[in-house]
Structures are given as structure tokens and as C-alpha cells.
Amino acid sequence: MTHMSHALRTPLNSIIGFSRVMLKGIDGPLTELQQADLTSIYNSGQHLLNLINSILDMSKIEAGNMELVFDEVLLHDIFHSVVATARGLLKDRPIELRTEIPDDLPTVWADGQRIRQVLINLVSNAAKFTERGYVALKVETDPEFVTIRVIDTGIGIEPEAQRRLFIPFQQVDASTSRRAGGTGLGLVICRSFVEMHGGRIWVESEPGKGSTFSFTLPIHRTAAESQGKEQVTD
Ligand code: ADP
């Protein structure tokens, strides 16, 4: 699998990397048409990379080979970078980005990269399925858990479909997915990562009104509790 992922990513990185080099004008000036075509190559490359990453993550999870790297994580650093990404996704659109994050957050014992991946997934979905209103990142703490919510005022999700969101290969509606170009694996992967941290993830949504995706991360965890294969393979 490592070999295959390398074989898939290397040519793709070259497509993405060189189209970016050309877009920056490093190889010389571009006509408008060349600019448009290269942008298309670059965006498709990124898209394909995301799909490949999802499929590789999913196959590792299914094989029980997903290994997390636990450490003390400063949630503020993660939120900071997620908010920057969200700002980029919402730029030039009539959608407000709201944040409600307490100043004093506890440290959590987590795989920071994976937690960031979960949040980016939720924020990207919120941005993708919202046309107007707002997308919010809201964080609450209690003695046991940090609860992180991504709230949107988008298209919402039918109750029947909500039940299938976290189950592999079940997209809400094939036409939306085709238009949005997803694999339907994003939330399944999110769920695995959150559960590997001892947290849970759920959705509340009303069609036409919007959705709230929430997940928890336990606060009091020691290294000894979090390490070991049982934890990782679920
Ligand atoms: P994908 O990679 O296909 O987007 P996800 O697991 O992230 O996979 O999402 C699965 C489906 O759930 C999406 O295709 C979409 O139909 C629905 N969905 C997810 N998040 C939202 C949201 N915030 N608002 C409306 N629909 C959503």
C-alpha cells in the first residue's frame, strides 16, 4: 500500500507542481487561455489528490492499519489554520465566517494532523453546500470533553440521509455528489479518526435550513491510555 500510494502521488504531485510553476509565470508569460487551462489542470490535480488520499485512508482504516501519532496538541494552532482555509473557501462569496472559540482551551492528547483533517473536511462540506448565510466554527469545553462544531446555513440533509452519512460508500444523493465531486468517504474517515481519539461525531440538520456537525475530544487522556493497537484498530 505504501508503494502504491507513492506510485499514485508522485506523478500527481508533478502535475500539480508544474502547473503551479507555470501559473506563477516562472516559465514565461501566459495568455489568458493558457492561464485558464492551467488553472483547470491544477484544480483537477488537487481534486484527484484529495480523492486518492481519501481512498488510501479508507483502505488503511478498513485493513486496521491506520496508525495515529498521538501527542499533546494545542487546539488553537489547529483552529487558526482551519479558519485560514475556511476564509479562502468562502472568499468572494456571500457567506460570513463566524468563530466562537474560548481563549483558554485545554490541551488534548491527539493526532493533530488527523484532527485538522477532520475539521477541514467538515468546513469544506459546509462551504460546498452553503450558498448564503454563514459558516461557523464553535468550540465548547466541559470538564471531560472539548466539543467542536461546524455550523452552516446551507441546503441541509434529509433525516433519512443523515443516518447514512457516516457509513462507507453511502452518498446522500448521487446527483449532488457528482456535482460536488466527492467520494462519500470524507465523513466515514472523520468518524473513524474521532472514534480512535475516544470521541464521537454526529450531525443535526434541517433541509433548507442548514447543518451542524459536532465532534468531541476527551480532555483527560494520558499517553498510556491512548497508545497501543487496540485503540488504533477499533
Ligand atoms: P464527499 O467527499 O462525497 O463530500 P462526505 O462524507 O464528506 O463525502 O459527505 C457525504 C455527503 O453528505 C455529501 O456528498 C453531501 O451530500 C452530504 N453533506 C455533507 N456535509 C454536508 C453539509 N454541511 N450540508 C449538506 N450536505 C452535506
N-end to C-end Cα span: 20 Å
Bound molecules: adenosine-5'-diphosphate
Label the overall shape.
Answer: globular
Structural class: alpha+beta
The largest β sheet comes out as: 5 strands, mixed
Task: Give an account of the 3D structure.
The protein is of the alpha+beta class. The protein is 50% helix and 19% strand. The protein is globular, with a radius of gyration of 19 Å. Adenosine-5'-diphosphate binds at residues 121, 125-126, 129, 152, 154-155, 157, 165, 171-172, 176-177, 180, 182-187, 211.
Summarize the structure.
50% of the residues lie in helices and 19% in strands. It is of the alpha+beta class and 234 residues long. Helix 1 runs antiparallel to helix 2, helix 2 (32-62) packs across helix 7 (186-196) and helix 4 (112-128) packs antiparallel against helix 7 (186-196).
Task: Detail the topology: elements first, then pairings.
Elements: H1 2-23, H2 32-62, E1 71-73, H3 75-90, E2 95-100, E3 108-110, H4 112-128, E4 133-141, E5 145-152, H5 159-162, H6 174-180, H7 186-196, E6 201-206, E7 210-218, H8 223-226, H9 229-233
Parallel strand pairs: 2-4
Antiparallel strand pairs: 1-3, 4-5, 5-7, 6-7
Helix pairs in contact: 1-2, 2-7, 3-4, 4-7
Bound molecules: adenosine-5'-diphosphate (ADP).
